[in-house]
Amino acid sequence: MRHRPFRTAFLAPTLAMAMPIGLAACSAGDESTADTTASASATPVSQASTSASASSSASDVEGVEFKKVEKRDGGTFDFSYSWPAEVSAEPKLAAALKSDMDSALASERAEWEKMIADAPADCVSCRSRGFSRDWEVVADLPRFLSLSMQIYGYTGGAHGNGGTRGVVWDRQAEARVRPMDFFTSAPALENAVHARYCPALNRERERKRGMPVDPNGDDMFSGCPSIDELRVLLGSSDGKAFDRIGLIADPYVAGSYAEGSYEVTLPVTTALLDAVRPEYRAAFALRK
């Protein structure tokens, strides 16, 4: 279920690598050539600014869109990393993402060099590697900036792997908070959303598959995933409080790779409010 008022577009593939805890599988190119590109609005890795003042707003700064493409020995290295202006307006958060970007670029390029060196002569796809991390705003509240991250990796083969992650920046504490940490426990959150989530998920499955779903069937993608298998995003309809929650099932969690990811958005209810930790209760509101 894709609805841009909650979150911007997804990448489809399934997850192959995890987001660092601190934040939260080609075609041949010309031999011996390198093409490093960045869009006109891009900020190079070495120059990505993290020096915005604490009072900066998203209108005062720009987002970062970095892209690097190299072609050599019949293989391609394709790396991209981006974050929006709202992140650039938070110096400590921007600094953490820039550090992650620099580290990922160095690591992924080193792995690509190794792939080229080790690739059999008859394996074209073994020479290419792709990587992307794209951060997007889910909700921007006075205290909290809720973000989603789309991650994708290609390390050879028929297709790559990707998925979704969520993180919330607490401006007051100047610290990252996992969406799950807003709740008293995973079981408490699951109990609050399970009865609404599972039927909504099956409606989306039926829409994609063109046939009814038997929740008690033997098919591995007929059951309802547990909250631990889902990615949680905190959203807002008014920019004042979190009043909806996004539950993302990456490919292979609720459906096949071909079905892509499944997104279900649920309004905040009294039952869900009861699952919120007391120190964060003021940041949530019932959906009007």
Automatic annotation (TrEMBL):
<feature type="domain" description="Deacetylase PdaC">
    <location>
        <begin position="74"/>
        <end position="161"/>
    </location>
</feature>
<dbReference type="InterPro" id="IPR025303">
    <property type="entry name" value="PdaC"/>
</dbReference>
<feature type="region of interest" description="Disordered">
    <location>
        <begin position="34"/>
        <end position="54"/>
    </location>
</feature>
<feature type="signal peptide">
    <location>
        <begin position="1"/>
        <end position="24"/>
    </location>
</feature>
<dbReference type="Pfam" id="PF13739">
    <property type="entry name" value="PdaC"/>
</dbReference>
<keyword id="KW-0732">Signal</keyword>
<protein>
    <submittedName>
        <fullName>DUF4163 domain-containing protein</fullName>
    </submittedName>
</protein>
